[in-house]
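User: Modeling request: complex.
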Amino acid sequence: MGVHIVGGSVIKIDRHFELGYRDLAYRVIRDCSECLDVDYVVISSTLPELSAHQVDLGTHIIQWIGRRVPVVRVESGESSGLAAVELAASLVESGRVEKALVLGVEKVTEYPTYTANYLYTLTLDYEYEVLRGVTPPAYASLAMKELIKSGVRRECFSNWAIKMHENAAVVPHAMLKFKISHDSLKDTQILADPLTLYDSFAFGDGAAAVVVSSTPNRSNSSVEIVYSNTEVGLPAYAREKISDLTASAKALKESLERFGLDLRKVVVELHDSYTPYPIAILRALRYLDSECDLSNFECLNLSGGLKARGHPIGATGVYQVYEVFKLLTSGLGGKTTSSEYGIVHSMSGPDNLSRVLVLKR
Amino acid sequence: MKLSAPQFWRVKENQYKLVITICKNCGRKTVFKRPICPHCGSDGVEYIESAGIGVVEEFTKVYYKRDSSEDRLPEVVGVVKLREGVRVVGEIVGIRSDEVREGMEVEAVLRKYVSDEPYGIIYYGLKFKPV
Amino acid sequence: MEVGIRGWGTYIPRFRLSAQEVAALWGYDSKLPKALGIIEKSVAEEDEDSVTMGWYAAKVAMQRAGISGDEVDAVFFGTESKPYAVKPSATIIADALGIKKRKLASDLEFACRAAGEGVRISVGLVKSGLAQNTLVIGSDTAQANPGDLLDFTASSGAVAFVVGPGSASAAVVEASVTYVTDTPDFWRRDRSPYPEHAEIFTGEPAYFHHIVSAVKLLLEETGLKTGDFDYAIFHQPNGRFPLQVARSLGIPQEKVLPGLVTPYIGNTYNASALLGLAKVLEEARPGSRILVATFGSGAGSDAFSLVVRDSVFELVKRGPRVVDIVNSKVQISYGEYSKFRGLLLRNIGG
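Assistant: Request completed. Predicted assembly structure:
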């Protein structure tokens, strides 16, 4: 028994002006034969009410693609995608369904960037953060300042961005496939001093699908979901430090210890919406000193991360799972690994909630 | 934007005042009047009102544009440690953004949060200005 | 029963626009600011309005008076720049200050003298026993048609007073009188963003006639002479009118200058003369007698005679002083002024 990921599909993260929510959803599954052979669909999406005036998006997608399969939509902020996989895995594990499709889909380009920024800001607490002028980059910049004060050099965050762009360059579905250097970082716009545009994720539309099944594929083309856990953090304003990402650190630590894993040796996708966050998490887990040497990590965000692959908010977690699934099986953009395990980390807001999923070859 | 009248009316105590929740179980203090301690989950809480004086612990100058924010940019958002020992995040106003310093003493002031232009409701609440 | 001022508070935004910059932009001769008696004016930020400024002044007034929200029986808000045409501002301020629900509360409008009338209403309420203490706020983000003469002076600021029993007061209201007529010297029509005025007609038949008439009535009723006053404070639409009206009443300039704030912060409309009073209370010795005459277009004037009491020294210490607030300033450009005050025509949200 067990729960397995037996297939999936993604489309390039981009400004898909010609495709709406349902078009993106159809596009990602139409060439994925295993995707439609399911008895349950979990749709993951964060913004459709706000960006497309659409409630009950899941049902409308299923009707549009001419299926009669039960569907539910999951929304859990930026971690929606991983929440959807978790839910599908539970449905399979419980015996309620044999095979479930998880379909993450998001549109962030229906309006100008300032409106998308506003919608994204609503992942924070509207009444107690958003109304007070607090935004995601404001928190990220305060976290960066704290880390700098604790001895982390500014270049450390830039190194992360540079590495993510390098990694994304060969990933077919990545949004930003160009390389950047310390030189090109110098003149980049500031979002919230000292955080720049290059410290921020790429905003794009996207759709990703994975199929969760009670039985593995016959060939070595499936992976097992061996563990998932979720931690809820304190609101950022109630912490000692905004850069105390204790929920992420705890969820990751527990997952690694459970299987005796070293993060440097396994396939891992960390939620790097803003560069200070993965740095803070890796420091909390004692993988990084102030030198921030990332070269010891064998398979760290090979997708390019949210930073360069892109962050189609509610679809991102499904992209991450797809990528780890591919890296553990047939490979991703020509990259293969010998790692037995894969770790997916997703969080909403500045560690308001963090989820971890452990996959095994 | 369409701002709700009941939503603001319901939470205005926490916008007009800096109420601090003190947990009788774990002893921790958290900003905002809340029914349950976010640290330990106890509902054994009591409230005090902050005098609204504090010190800027850290701040950032924000250029991040989102709907209806353009007339305020660049804005300064900071973490203020209140005299009562509690941190609160908020905007720092009444000062040029380049003049803000860590350690600066600030006091809470009523300002407009958002205004549903041109016919809708105005949300007021506290920000911080230099003393 | 004596009634007096138990506490006062003021608010002046830190940002200042120089009158020379207004002159240069709109093509006025550089000698005009001096003729108007204006150096610079205070400018509220984008997120400020008469409510937020009035809140601050009222908070300080209550702090000076040493009273809690449970002790305030009435809140009067005098303004001609209400954020809501319909919906009281007084209730917002009262709620944000934690003032009890059982109270009177309303916004008063009489151009620049509504808060002056608020003080007189308060004296009546306290004297009659209907109220123990009242809170009177004068606050304006004064509007002026950009480029108009008013653009040199129309500024932002607030003042607030706690009116209560004379025994607890820094100054008692010895006498007061109001003189009003129907004189259309200055107005703002419903839905119009800026006021209109009849220029030279705002002077003699309006400002001067009403203030002089109110002051003369006050002198007649009290038997006092102008020489009995140590300070004279008049409504300050510019830096010149108060000195001219003093001259016509035979009051020397040195009694007017201590309460003259408009040259440094502009005309704060409802806070104008009363901000001058706050400043004088912070400088006057006990026993001093103060003449205050407000003016509101339309038109009317309230004349007050106040006598400073010993407790004034203690109350001064309990809050920021006008002179310090006036001196704490940052210069801004006309561009920033336009942004702060929303004078630019733009698509909201764009």
